[in-house]
Specification:
Blueprint (H helix, E strand, L loop, with lengths): L6 E8 L2 H11 L3 E10 L2 E9 L8 E6 L13 E9 L4 H11 L8 E3 L2 E7 L5 E6 L21 E9 L3 H10 L3 E6 L2 E5 L8 E6 L14 E9 L2 H14 L4 E6 L4 E6 L5 E6 L27 H6 L7
Parallel strand pairs: 1-4, 5-8, 9-12, 13-16
Antiparallel strand pairs: 1-13, 2-3, 3-4, 5-9, 6-7, 7-8, 10-11, 11-12, 14-15, 15-16
Bound molecules: fe (ii) ion.
Length: 316
């Protein structure tokens, strides 16, 4: 049994908050699962969580709208380059029509890799997304008034990392993280964990000429990817394994209110996180009411109104 169960969340720096809500909720049919805050220095920045209605691990993509601070990140290698969402077979034509009708930029041609058809499209801040067709995703569909179940997104399918070199990172994925190296296709290398399939797939894209991207929080890049683990005990088993192998660049277990996070850099430079699934989003809002109110962690309770007053109002 691998310690890592699949994805927990992906976190990106985006532009404006309302533009981001419109992209995930209106365009893609995601639920706003939590509306909270990143307090970094003096200026609050929203932390917006999107996923299926239950907020299940592996469906979550979260945003820091950094336009407010005016900090831009630099896309490049050593980052998650593409966020891949899974959709049912034969749904890409629906999504292409939808992108055209809504004025969303998307690639002219569909592509295929590892037997799966894919359609590239773009977040307004420039981050790249693919919809990937699969028959093997039984997760709750993210439907809306406009998006029927037959075409609805099921969650994160996989991530595509941009790496200048891959040899050491392949060893890390297999020996440190227990992923299986299941295939290669040109510059792509595919890995799977646990039972495999959507939500458990990592791809490397070998791009030896691509300049290194930034690691800071800022507009326009995915900052890190978080993998799900059961508990802090499991996190610490991973940490001790990394240390024993010589990968000593790992954080302590950090309190993120809805989970505990342990951060580590993989050899290719991408920030990874191991996140516990033992707490969850029901600690401050009832299931069925996730994301309705602005929430702050207990240690910021006394500043809730002040923080909210300094953030751009958003409508869902
Ligand atoms: Fe995270």
């Amino acid at each position: 049994m691998s310690i890592i169960k699949g994805f927990h969340h992906l976190t990106a720096g985006v532009s404006g908050a309302q533009e981001d809500v419109d992209f995930y909720v209106k365009l893609l049919g995601q639920s706003l699962v939590k509306k909270t805050v990143l307090l970094d220095g003096e200026d609050p920045i929203y932390h917006l969580y999107y996923g299926n209605a239950n907020g299940d691990p592996g469906t979550l993509v979260t945003s820091f709208p950094f336009r407010q601070k005016g900090v831009r990140a630099r896309p490049g290698s050593g980052q998650v380059r593409v966020i891949n969402y899974s959709v049912p077979r034969d749904s890409l034509e629906y999504w292409r029509d939808r992108f055209r009708a809504k004025g969303v930029s998307y690639a002219q041609d569909m592509t295929e890799r590892f037997g799966e058809r894919r359609q590239r499209f773009y977040h307004p801040c420039g981050i790249e997304f693919d919809l990937v067709e699969t028959d093997h995703d039984g997760r709750l569909p993210c439907t809306s008034e406009e998006i029927p179940e037959a075409v609805a997104i099921r969650g994160v399918h996989s991530i595509t990392l941009s790496l200048r070199e891959v040899a050491e990172s392949i060893i890390f994925m297999t020996d440190a993280l227990d992923f299986r190296h299941v295939g290669d296709a040109g510059p792509y290398h595919r890995f799977e964990t646990s039972t495999g399939g959507p939500g458990m797939v990592v791809e490397f894209l070998h791009e030896p000429e691509r300049h290194q991207g930034s690691s800071i929080y800022g507009e326009g890049t995915v900052h890190h990817v978080a993998f799900a683990v059961d508990s802090v005990d499991q996190q610490m088993i991973l940490k001790e394994r990394f240390m024993a192998m010589g990968y000593i660049d790992t954080s302590e277990s950090v309190n993120r209110n809805y989970f505990r996070s342990m951060y580590f850099k993989m050899p290719g430079g991408v920030m990874f996180e191991a996140t516990t699934t033992d707490i969850g989003f029901a600690i401050d809002e009832e299931p069925g009411h996730f994301g309705e109110e602005f929430q702050v962690p207990p240690w910021l309770k006394g500043r809730k109104d002040e923080l909210l007053g300094r953030l751009e109002p958003i409508a869902v």
